[in-house]
Target: 3-dehydroquinate synthase
Amino acid sequence: MKNLELDLGERSYPIFIARDVLGQPNLWAQYIAGRQVCIVTNSTVAPLYLAALKAQLSDKSVCEVVLPDGEAHKNLATLEQIFDTLLEKNHNRGTTLIALGGGVVGDMCGFAAACYQRGVQFIQIPSTLLSMVDSSVGGKTGVNHPLGKNMIGAFHQPNCVLADLSLLDTLPEREFSAGMAEVIKYGLICDAPFFEWLEANIAGLMRRDTDLLEEAVYRSCANKALVVAEDEREGGRRAILNLGHTFGHAIETAEGYGNWLHGEAVSAGMVLALSLSVELEWLNSEILTRAKSLLQQAGLPVAPPNNMDVDQFLQLMGRDKKVLDGRLRLVLLTGLGEAVVSSQAPEDVIAQVLRDAGVRA
Ligand SMILES: NC(=O)c1ccc[n+]([C@@H]2O[C@H](COP(=O)([O-])OP(=O)(O)OC[C@H]3O[C@@H](n4cnc5c(N)ncnc54)[C@H](O)[C@@H]3O)[C@@H](O)[C@H]2O)c1
Ligand SMILES: O=C(O)C(=O)C[C@@H](O)[C@H](O)[C@H](O)COP(=O)(O)O
Ligand SMILES: [Zn+2]
Model:
């Protein structure tokens, strides 16, 4: 068992990481304040893990909302299902929502918790690698809009995070790989020794060796917790967690939510961000080569889709939430583990990097 605390003063919370955390309510039941609980999950995760969770909550009044599965359903219309159930079952401000699922469920449940009766408590039980290492931690919640990723949302921190590694036993390979993109991201942006550890252990990690997985989830969450504790609402440094995302979100939006998984789009996006850093002569090309190799060994794409053109890419990137005074701000690297947020990359250089990666002129 590896525990962490995200230090946010009175909104601090623990992150429990181990196999079978769910089966240890002595660790986490105290984070449910009242009797009312609403579990938010989806049609894939419910048959796998809902009964086991409910069995741990026999002293509570529990209802559930089973959402349709997929990024394409991460929108305002789906969110209404959560509000409808909460109101139909007379949930009041003392209720606790529990997100049981991947990042899509977590982001939607968290946003519902932020909005319902102006804010109720919630717990994250992430069931994908990506949600264990990233989306369940840090309090970014929200939904997509047809014109852009995560465009409607709120910062709302959970009461605790339970990363039960045994849930990963049923996770499909492609989804496991997608999670590895965000794991590798931490090495690139702020933890060079972790990147080197990943290079040395990638084969064992892809075999889902329990000890290696526990270490990778722990070090990812520890890195994210430090960044978020420093800058909860992304006034500055937190933006480094967005490495590759300005490119990646453009890919997800252009391809239709769900065709490229978030982690896959982030992988291709990180390669573009590193290529741009090399093009600007801020980064040694050896780091780009090593990053590409690690992402490939994790089963991830390292080039953007071949059906987008440069203008479409740049237009979608222009809607990024980091845009300030009409200027793109991108996360770039100056070294391994050293990220900066910069508006210095000229648009013609960005366009050249996109063309070099095979995006149509
Ligand atoms: N809030 C944040 O800070 C943050 C960070 C990173 C990503 N995100 C968001 O997270 C989302 C991506 O999350 P994701 O990669 O978890 O995708 P996801 O939630 O769509 O889950 C991936 C797939 O795996 C299935 N699944 C989940 N757990 C499973 C299990 N244990 N066994 C078998 N199948 C399982 C899901 O039903 C789904 O089909 C995106 O919407 C992204 O924008 C948010
Ligand atoms: O927690 C953060 O901050 C991140 O940026 C983590 C990202 O991996 C995640 O995809 C996040 O949802 C992106 O946020 P957005 O503000 O660019 O929508
Ligand atoms: Zn992400």
Observations:
- The chain is about 45% helix and 20% strand.
